[in-house]
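Q&A log
Question type: sequence-to-structure
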Amino acid sequence: MISITTTVTRAAATQRRISAWRERLPKAISQQTKRQALRLKTIMVRGIRDGAPGGKEFAPLADTTIKMKKSSKPLIDNGDLIRSIDVDDVGSDQFFIGVNRNAESDDGEKLANLAQIHNDGTPPYSIPVTPAMRRFWFVMVAKKIFSAPLSPHTDFILHPGQKARPFLEPSYEEWSKDAERQFKEGLARALGVRGMF
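Response status: OK
Response body:
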């Protein structure tokens, strides 16, 4: 009789715990999913700041670029790109992590386009020489950043193309190494269960 009563009491306690877990589980899943989304954002931002997302160093800047921006750090000028990386809740425990299509710099440039150019690189392209470009070129020669003046007959300048400096995929790879473990451990903590996973 004692063993049967003890078994029934334990079963009832287990049933209460399972009911409590069921109530807390949806909220715990949402919290842990958001926590992992924010963690991926942090990894992405840190990777850009350090110049080595996922431990993969960015291609170095050209000497003229370093002279113009007075820094050798790729992808960092005024911080617009880093500030535009965000976590957006799109519903059903899903999050978008990256540069929103509507994000713009202070001068109205679409930051999603800029992010894609830096992440993927570009093929060589032509830049039309406008009066503003001629003035800019003149100033760069005067500052000894560019070595040769622009010919009055030059209509286009061939740019060798933007080097790819991927930050999305390497950041994701770094995050995914232990995202599942961290998610499960966070879920177990939220439910108050040790050794659940």
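Response note: The two ends are 35 Å apart (CA to CA).
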